[in-house]
Amino acid sequence: MQAIEEKLAYLIRTVDDLNDVVTAQQTDINRLKRRVEMLMTREAEREQMGGGGVVIGGERPPHYWLARVGAAQTKSGNGVRAANKRSGAPDQTERNAQRDQRDRCHFDNLL
Fold first, then answer.
1. Which of 10, 64, 94, 96 gives 90 a disulfide partner, CB atoms 3.0 to 4.6 angstroms apart?
2. 72 lies in which domain range?
3. Residue 86 has what pLDDT?
4. Is 10 domain-assigned?
5. From residue 103, how far is each of 32, 43, 66, 79 by CA, in Å?
């Protein structure tokens, strides 16, 4: 009888340990699902803003307008920032601030 009780106690402990592992895995899965959802949302926003990195058909790559601005700078002697402002394109500082704000909002939602 004592051997059966020992085996039962061992099996109960094993089940409890496995339950802890499964619970921790489910927590990780839920956290990763939230992160994937956040990344999918961010990518959808990026595509809507036209900031996607994939060139399709006749689209110009994102760096194309920078090359055009560089050519204009060489001819006119104006700075790149001035050319960016004329073209309506945000400068690097503005883009970084926008990205940082978006990232803070997304990561705050995860917590």
1. 94
2. 65-94
3. 55
4. no
5. 16, 12, 25, 30
* pTM recorded for the entire structure: 0.42
pLDDT digits (tens, 9 = 90+) for 26-57: 999 999 999 999 999 998 888 888 755 555 55
Mean pLDDT of the chain: 75
Number of domains in the chain: 1
Distances (CA, A) of 22 to 15, 33, 105: 10, 16, 30
In a domain, 87, yes or no: yes
Q: How far apart are CA 4 and CA 75, in angstroms?
A: 91
72 occurs within a structural domain:
yes
| CA distance to 16, 26, 85, 96, 98, per residue, from 4 (Å) | 18, 33, 81, 66, 65
